[in-house]
Amino acid sequence: MSRLPSGARADVLVIGGGIIGLAVAWRAAQRGLRNVIVVDPSPGGGAARVAAGMLAPVTELQYGEEPLLRLGMASNERYAAFAAELTEASGGLDTGYRRCGTVAVALDSDDREELRELHAFHRRLGLDSTWLTGREARRLEPMLAPGVRGGLHVAEDHQVDGRRLLKALLLACERAGVSIRPAEAVELLVENGRATGARLSTQETVTAEQVLLAAGPHSHRLPGLPEGALPAIRPVKGQVLRLRIPDAYRPFLSRNVRAVVRGRHLYLVPRENGELVVGATTEEQGYDTTVTAGGVYELLRDAHELVPGITELPLLETSAGLRPGSPDNAPLLGPTSVPGLVAATGHYRNGVLLTPVTADLVAEYLATGEVPEPARPFTPLRFSPDRSTTKASA
Ligand code: GLY
């Protein structure tokens, strides 16, 4: 990692070296911003290290979130090219991008009604989504429980491996000349109402033309941040399991499988390398990332109901991450009410999915000073007291 002299100066200082901060930094450097510096105590960490990496704008659609659907679909469409470019830029690292499709299934008649409503919603929006009987679902995925009552097949909801993406992004950033500092930003510097840089845990200061806040659920906690610049980004814990599918059991599952089990979202993401990721709990209890027996039990119990054969698989890892939830669960993209301070945070359940589009839109703003049209519904200014009528999810 490149070292900086004390008192460094940047075109863009990125606070937060998770998937969003790194992707924006990479794109910003590609757009000719000369001195891009990323600060993070653990660059390449954050929620994407834990996430399953499902790229599922259609099967994860919630009512009233059509603007988010459009952004998610735009990002999904960019993924193949984004992954290929990143592989090239990192000297050949594979990102685990896999065009596999997703089935969403119902285990009882209440779940089936809920899925039918989702399917009707998909159809009203003209989305590619096919209704399946239980038998048709099991024909696609023979390991599904015999009791599966029906489901949806969404051919364009895919997957990527967040850990591999982070590794490739770190390398691509360095090759593009981005300076990555393993340090914490301990104070935002503001002069005459304008963000001018940050003081680091190393006591160095970095001054910058523009400061990008991309620190997930820590974004609003940066000391020195003027009041009202950013709403609270709440941490929403997700516990996740990683299992291994032995060669003799493959393919086991051929595509992402998801279900709502007793009101809880469950998904199984089978990777090409034999890893099976099972997620995730949704817990709002502060900045705690403890893996609990209850969380693991809940995931295994629900996954076993959906795919009984799962209990035969070796369990490799348990982990927990924090999704960054904005007040309306949509991301904050673009300039804040503080001149010089830009946001790319609050991606909640969609950080990995929204990475390519966030990187493109926010880097465009950083390079041109113009907010691109697709970013406008997600302006951080919608949370400013005098702009409260601007909503991301209309
Ligand atoms: N997008 C999956 C999750 O947040 O659990």
In short:
The protein is of the alpha/beta class and 394 residues long. The chain has helices spanning 19-30, 66-89, 109-124, 134-140, 162-175, 293-306, 355-368; strands at residues 8-15, 36-39, 54-55, 102-106, 130-133, 150-154, 158-159, 179-181, 185-191, 194-200, 205-213, 234-244, 256-261, 264-270, 275-279, 315-325, 332-335, 341-345.
Tell me what you see in this structure.
With 394 residues, the protein is of the alpha/beta class. The chain has two domains: 1-98 and 159-232 and 328-394, 3-Layer(bba) Sandwich (FAD/NAD(P)-binding domain); 99-158 and 235-325, D-Amino Acid Oxidase, subunit A, domain 2 (D-Amino Acid Oxidase, Chain A, domain 2), CATH 3.30.9.10. The chain contains seven helices and 18 strands. It has helices at residues 19-30, 66-89, 109-124, 134-140, 162-175, 293-306, 355-368, and strands at 8-15, 36-39, 54-55, 102-106, 130-133, 150-154, 158-159, 179-181, 185-191, 194-200, 205-213, 234-244, 256-261, 264-270, 275-279, 315-325, 332-335, 341-345. The strands form three sheets. Strands 1, 2, 8, 9, 10, 11, 17 and 18 form an eight-stranded mixed β-sheet that branches. Helix 1 (19-30) packs parallel to helix 5 (162-175), helix 1 (19-30) crosses helix 7 and helix 2 crosses helix 5 (162-175). The longest helix has 24 residues, at 66-89. The protein starts with 7 loop residues before the first strand and ends in a 26-residue tail after the last helix. Mean pLDDT is 94; it is low at 1-5 and 388-394. Glycine is lined by residues 54, 238, 279-280, 323, 349.
